[in-house]
Design brief:
mainly alpha; Growth Hormone, Chain: A; 3-stranded mixed beta sheet; 3 strands; globular; disordered N terminus; disordered C terminus
Length: 365
């Protein structure tokens, strides 16, 4: 039996919460889309480690967020309640001050926006621009894809991105709930488990900065997807056998092996499939958002109405689906590139015109 107390009245204004969530998602989605498209456009193949570094910063935020929220969560208190001649142990939750954590997040977001505002002011208001250009390379992607094949590849890539992001977001979002409902951990311990996941996720992305210098994106994708499936199998076995040390080992494992998949899909598409324009980046982000939108509804329903272990069943199936889509795309590319021509992308740089000076000619006497 659990009793919740101390909720603030304004926290129950669901329309306001949904509206604020929509606005934050709108801004974050636009920033994510533009950043990914600009990264591959400016740096090309040289941007492989920079792409990994940019996404590593997302994981760093994921480490800090649960630690910031944890002190404001309600404490779990066990109290003895006597009813006549019987005594019952009741779980009571104290006051939750989650709004304080959101105010801290607001301050961090505002400080993060200042550099972009400064760049915008210099470019648009002061007329000062920075010429950023990286040396272009000879791409192995096809010169011109048939319309049908291009549409098919776009659909498959979007489906791959959707299934992966569904796994990533659902695992991070429902891990604490799974630990509380199935593993019977308290909220604080579950919050630390979430931080451990994000810690492994961040370490994996920083490791990807080094690995991407020696391995191609397609190699990292293949290896990490296989390891991700094995990590979920290990977590599933450890959970059903209630082997707590093994659970603590396998909780960070999926985070580590999910770390490089998202940025590698972008770089693999740019280098081997088709140019990542703003439209392609938007398609990827819309697909990713669709997966993160629908999957929690499905997983939440299964965890509530069937069993909490459904959480791992769904993630394991979706990981297999993501890997299968990757294999299909890879096979299509191998078949087409054997017969199709390859494109070469060159950059033509026109230097600024030199200032003309007046030449004077002196006659020798």
């Amino acid at each position: 039996m659990a009793v919740f107390t101390g909720f603030q009245p304004w926290c129950r204004s669901y329309p306001l919460m949904l509206a604020l969530r929509f606005l934050s998602g709108l801004g974050g989605g636009g920033l994510d889309t533009g950043a990914n498209a600009d990264m591959v456009s400016i740096w090309d193949e040289e941007g492989r480690p920079y792409m990994q570094a940019m996404h590593a910063s997302f994981g760093a935020g994921g480490i800090v967020a649960p630690l910031v929220i944890e002190p404001f969560l309600s404490e779990k208190i066990l109290e003895n309640v006597t009813n006549g001649n019987t005594s019952e142990l009741v779980t009571v939750y104290g006051e939750t001050n989650i709004h304080s954590a959101f105010l801290i997040s607001l301050a961090v977001i505002l400080t993060g926006a200042l550099p972009f505002f400064y760049m915008y002011f210099r470019i648009c208001c002061c007329g000062i621009s920075h010429k950023m250009a990286a040396k272009k390379i000879d791409h192995k992607r096809p010169a011109k894809l048939p319309v049908g094949l291009k549409i098919a590849l776009c659909i498959l890539l979007c489906a791959c991105m959707m299934s992966y992001c569904a796994v990533e977001d659902t695992f991070a979002g429902f891990l604490a709930t799974f630990c509380v409902d199935y593993l019977q951990w308290d909220k604080s311990t579950s919050s630390y488990a979430t931080s451990l996941y994000w810690g492994a996720f961040t370490v994996g992305r920083f490791t990807g900065i080094i690995l991407i210098r020696f391995l191609r994106p397609v190699q990292l994708l293949c290896g990490y997807l296989i390891c991700l499936i094995l990590a979920f199998i290990g977590l599933f076995i450890a959970s059903i056998t209630m082997t707590e040390p093994a659970v603590w080992v396998f909780i960070p494992a999926p985070g580590f092996f999910m770390s490089v998949i998202f940025p590698c899909i972008f770089t693999w598409t740019e280098e081997s499939i088709l140019e990542v324009t703003g439209k392609i980046s938007s398609m990827f982000l819309i697909s990713a958002s669709t997966g993160t939108l629908l999957n929690p509804l499905f997983v939440g329903y299964l965890m509530k109405n069937i069993a909490p272990i459904s959480f791992l069943y769904v993630l394991l199936v979706e990981s297999f689906l993501c890997f299968s889509l990757f294999i299909v795309i890879y096979c299509l590319l191998k078949v087409y590139i054997k017969t199709g021509s390859r494109s070469q992308t060159f950059e033509i740089v026109i230097p600024p015109p030199e200032e003309m000076t007046t030449l004077s000619v002196q006659e020798n006497p």
